[in-house]
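User: I've been trying to design a sequence by hand for this structure and keep getting stuck. Would you show me what you'd pick, starting by listing the structure so we're on the same page?

Assistant: Good idea, let's start from the same input. This is the structure you sent:
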């Protein structure tokens, strides 16, 4: 099974060939696909799948069905660890028959999605399932960062040109993650400026705005962090001595499972808190940002 093609739509497809001992699965992120000689049913409390409710198509004598990748939908179960989100369900397949005592074919199905953007799809979590279950890995989340004109975060600076701000003016930053699962929250672990376009810019000096999920000084105000799939903060922009007249802003972020943790950082008196384990995503960068005296 290949669940790794699922991105914006966050829907996976699974092709199940009942005629083979080891079912073949391929696709993106639903639960789908049966030979025409089988019925697939859904009862939300028992993890069945109701074919009549889903989109389907017929291709080479196989009927493909699509089920949204979301916890609780038609009995889909979501579990997470520090690196992956794992969606699982049992598929009950009933051969077409007039008898009411037909024994179904039961196929455990799971799909593991890395919570780290750079995680290789060649390595994935294998949940413990019954023998013969179907397993696969999914695509990673993607993040983007923008600078806004105002504190209402409504108008975005044009990213095709350097952002020019007066020294000491406020920098309004929004970070967003493309992810359909509402159980996750985006958490900014740290944000800093440097003269390098690369997040790990070697010996380049870093000026931290957020560190260990908390502001480093009173000039940084966090509006939203650990609540939803976006994070917002504002910070005053100052010239950095001994550097070039422009800076790049870098943020490291992670996804937090709101069902298991309190994802909103608690930052009292600028003391960095200990935080629950969560999967880090790749850093996001914006810039260059220049200033006017």
């Amino acid at each position: 099974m290949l669940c790794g093609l699922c991105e914006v739509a966050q829907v996976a497809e699974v092709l199940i060939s009942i005629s083979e001992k080891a079912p073949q699965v391929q696709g993106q992120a639903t639960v789908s696909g049966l030979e025409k000689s089988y019925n697939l049913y859904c009862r939300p409390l028992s993890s069945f799948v109701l074919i009549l409710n889903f989109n389907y198509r017929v291709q080479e004598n196989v009927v493909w069905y699509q089920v949204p990748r979301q916890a609780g939908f038609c009995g889909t179960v979501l579990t997470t660890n520090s690196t992956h989100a794992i969606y699982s369900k049992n598929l009950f397949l009933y051969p077409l028959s007039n008898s009411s005592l037909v024994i179904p074919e039961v196929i455990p199905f799971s799909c593991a999605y890395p919570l780290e953007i750079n995680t290789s799809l060649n390595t994935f979590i294998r949940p413990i399932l019954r023998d013969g279950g179907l397993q696969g890995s999914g695509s990673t989340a993607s993040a983007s960062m923008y600078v806004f004109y105002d504190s209402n975060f409504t108008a975005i600076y044009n990213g095709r040109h350097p952002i020019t701000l007066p020294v000491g003016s406020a920098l309004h930053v929004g970070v967003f993650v493309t992810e359909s699962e509402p159980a996750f929250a985006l958490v900014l672990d740290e944000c800093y400026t440097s003269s390098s376009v690369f997040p790990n810019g070697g010996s380049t000096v870093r000026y931290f705005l957020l560190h260990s999920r908390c502001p480093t000084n009173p000039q940084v105000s966090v509006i939203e962090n650990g609540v939803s799939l976006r994070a917002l903060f504002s910070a005053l922009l100052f010239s950095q001595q001994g550097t070039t007249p422009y800076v790049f802003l870098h943020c490291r972020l992670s996804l937090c499972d709101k069902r298991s943790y309190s994802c909103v950082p608690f930052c009292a008196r600028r003391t960095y808190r200990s935080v629950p384990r969560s999967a880090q995503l790749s850093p996001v960068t914006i810039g260059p940002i220049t200033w006017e005296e």
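That's my pick for every position. To get oriented when you compare it with your attempt: Residues 142-292 form a domain with the Immunoglobulin-like fold (CATH 2.60.40.4100). The radius of gyration is 24 Å.
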